[in-house]
Amino acid sequence: MSGLIQTAMLALLWMPVDTPGAKVIVAANILMTCFNIVISLSTVPGIGPLLIAVLRSFRPMKTMFLLMGMVSSTFFCVFTTISDDHRDLMYVGIYLYRALFLGDGDASEALSGFDDGHEQIMDFGEEMFTGDGSNLLVNASNVFMVIASLLFSIVLLNLVIGMYSKFYEEMQPFSVLLFHQQRARACVCYMLAPGIPVDVFLKEPGPGKWCRFYLYTAAGLCFMLSVGILLLEHEMLVLNTIFMTLGLQLSQVACVLNISYTAKQTNYLWVSYRADYNEEHYMETTNKELSMLRRDLADVRAAGKEDLLQIKQLLTARFPETSHSRHCRALGGGTDAHSVEFPCGE
């Protein structure tokens, strides 16, 4: 809640961000606060499992991202080498990103000789890539751009999409379990967080409504002072920041007041269980393993029968049966298909 209030105040209120540095700082603060709010939604039912599955699917792809970085760095060095003399590294990096990641044809023409129809002359009045007047550089840039487009834009990007889809399907069944773990971790963090000494304000706090009222009143006064200083005195940014931070902290303490005071609350025994357990999902792998074992066992039995038959045939050919020969049975001693007669001698 405090992050949401802070983002709304920074984005909607008129603030003295006239300098470029101040604008960058405020924009970075809004970006990080919004990311913090989105990550905190992982403990909200409904959107939490989806958000966890989306974020956790990126972890197995670290090696793939490293490979993409190596390939893009290679082509960055290549096009930096053959670029025009008056082009800097920022120019090459931006247009190479547009060409490889976004598939922008205009960016490809800005780094190579793809503009064979001289459309850039009609649009900008000059060619963005001339190769310093060398046809060899222009032709070489065309070859390098074709290789970069085929290898990166067609092969690697499509492979990343396929890999992410596979990892997302694998992570989705476990997202509910990770969601409950995240909620349990958040509950423990709130319970173990240092709270304010309520007994200093009230001997018998009860629900703490008066103490919470005092805190909200103080937080409201801090916000009003912060806005007043912001609108009247544009140069007192430090004092404005102090009052805004103090108001946010007081409002957060007021929200967790009942949780922080646990002196007179009843103790409970927490019992956790697997709420996402699905017998069919977890037995699927076991059933596959049992099927493979049964198939292997059947193959072993069939091979054993064939070996026994071959041994019987060899023994029959080596020691033909006669009326006065004596025999004994081995390998089971029965009369089924696994029993074989061996000559025991005279």
**What is the helix content?**
55-70%
Mean pLDDT: 76
Which class of secondary structure composition applies to the elements? mainly alpha
Beta-strand content estimate:
under 5%
Oligomer: single chain
Count of helical regions: 14
Unreliably modeled segments: 322-346
* Cα Rg: 38 Å
- Element string (H = helix, E = strand): HHHHHHHHHHHHHHEE
Total beta strand runs = 2
What overall geometry do the principal axes of the alpha carbons give? flat
Give the end-to-end Cα distance, rounded to a whole number of Å: 99 Å
For the biggest β-sheet, the strand order reads: 1-2
Largest sheet: 2 strands, antiparallel
Give an account of the 3D structure:
- This is Ion transport domain-containing protein.
- Keywords: Membrane, Transmembrane, Transmembrane helix.
- By secondary structure, the protein is mostly helical.
- Among the domains are: 124 residues, no CATH class; 55 residues.
- Helices cover 68% and strands 2% of the residues.
- It has 14 helices and two strands.
- It has a two-stranded antiparallel ribbon with strand order 1-2.
- Helix 1 runs antiparallel to helix 2, helix 3 packs across helix 9 and helix 4 runs antiparallel to helix 8.
- It is flat, with a radius of gyration of 38 Å.
- The C terminus is likely disordered.
